[in-house]
Amino acid sequence: EIKVALGIYPIDALKLNDRELDEEIEFIRKNRDRIIAIGEVGIDLKKPKLNTDIIDVLKNRFSPRVYSEEEVASKDLDSMIEAVRWSPSAMNNQPWFFYTAKKGSPGFKILTNSLGDRNYWAKKAPVLILACYIKEDKFGEYGQYDLGQAVFSLVIQARSLGYHSRQMADFNKE
Predict the structure, then answer these.
(1) CB atoms within 10 A of CB 2
(2) DSSP H or E segment with residue 98
(3) CA-CA-CA-CA torsion sign (148, 102, 62, 115)
(4) Which parts of the chain fold into alpha helices (H)?
(5) pTM
(6) Integer Cα distance of 69 and 46 in angstroms
(7) How far apart are the C-alpha atoms of 82 and 150, rounded to whole Å?
(8) 93 vs 69: CA distance, rounded Å
(9) CA distance 174 to 161
(10) What is the Cα–Cα distance from 42 to 63, expressed in whole angstroms?
(11) Of 21, 43, 119, 149, whose CB is crowded by the most CB atoms within 10 A?
């Protein structure tokens, strides 16, 4: 048996007038025994309109919640970390460190076990990278800013290699 899953872009739902919304709700009520799920679909098919042109690597950047389980080539991962190394920082201090963990490694298990409930999707990613800054650094007041630049360098390098990435904060730091 095949059941239908309904989906609508959340932004499109906001455009419905009261009558159209009532019709949609009534359709769902009438067909509730045949519908298996309702949710947003096509999340990566609609892109915001640019106010002015920007470089392609930025235009094509996207933060998905679904990843292929295909392995990331070690040379590509090395290239992403090299982009981090070339990131600007206050006095070239580079007050950060990055911990990479490939799926199947002990580190990957540690990182996935630390994830909050909202980041369930990350457990399917082929690589997790923990980015940290050194708080007690002599230029500590800039560490978070410098780390942000380093992460963005990694994100842009990843995208230029054909990968997508997503940052997340909901995890247990212990």
Answers:
(1) 6
(2) strand 96-102
(3) negative
(4) 10-13, 18-30, 56-59, 74-85, 106-114, 143-160
(5) 0.69
(6) 24
(7) 10
(8) 35
(9) 33
(10) 13
(11) 119
